[in-house]
């Protein structure tokens, strides 16, 4: 299921993690030559991808959320 990116944070290994609207998280690594995501290496690159949808396999498997979204009044 496709879910939009709403933010980012770094994990304990200093890797970038995308926070998805559904409440799940997904690593977004730039690890050439296997994974090419140079946009993740800069603040501007990450900001440019906010709202982009990623395939959330956790949603597909109906897994519990990784985090709770704050109330949006």
Please, could you describe this protein's structure?
The chain is of the alpha+beta class and 73 residues long. It has a single domain, classed as Beta Barrel (OB fold (Dihydrolipoamide Acetyltransferase, E2P)), CATH 2.40.50. The chain has two helices and four strands; from the N terminus they run βββαβα. The chain is globular, with a radius of gyration of 12 Å.
Count of separate structural domains? 1
- CATH structural fold name: OB fold (Dihydrolipoamide Acetyltransferase, E2P)
What is the overall shape?
globular
CATH class: Mainly Beta
Please give the order of strands in the largest beta sheet. Answer: 3-2-1-4
Mean pLDDT: 92
- The radius of gyration is 12 Å
Separation, N- and C-terminal Cα atoms: 26 Å
CATH-level-2 architecture: Beta Barrel
Task: Describe the secondary-structure layout.
Layout: E1 2-10, E2 16-20, E3 25-27, H1 43-48, E4 53-55, H2 57-60
Antiparallel strand pairs: 1-2, 1-4, 2-3
Keywords:
4 strands, OB fold (Dihydrolipoamide Acetyltransferase, E2P), single chain, alpha+beta, 73 residues
Compact overview of the structure:
The chain has 73 residues and is an alpha+beta fold. It has one domain: Beta Barrel (OB fold (Dihydrolipoamide Acetyltransferase, E2P)), CATH 2.40.50.
């Amino acid at each position: 299921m496709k879910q939009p990116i709403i933010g980012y944070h770094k994990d304990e290994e200093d890797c970038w993690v995308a926070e998805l609207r559904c409440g799940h998280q997904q690593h977004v690594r730039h690890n050439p030559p296997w994974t090419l995501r140079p946009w993740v290496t800069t603040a501007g690159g990450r900001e440019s991808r906010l709202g982009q949808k990623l395939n959330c396999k956790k949603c597909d498997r109906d897994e519990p959320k990784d985090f709770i979204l704050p109330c949006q009044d």
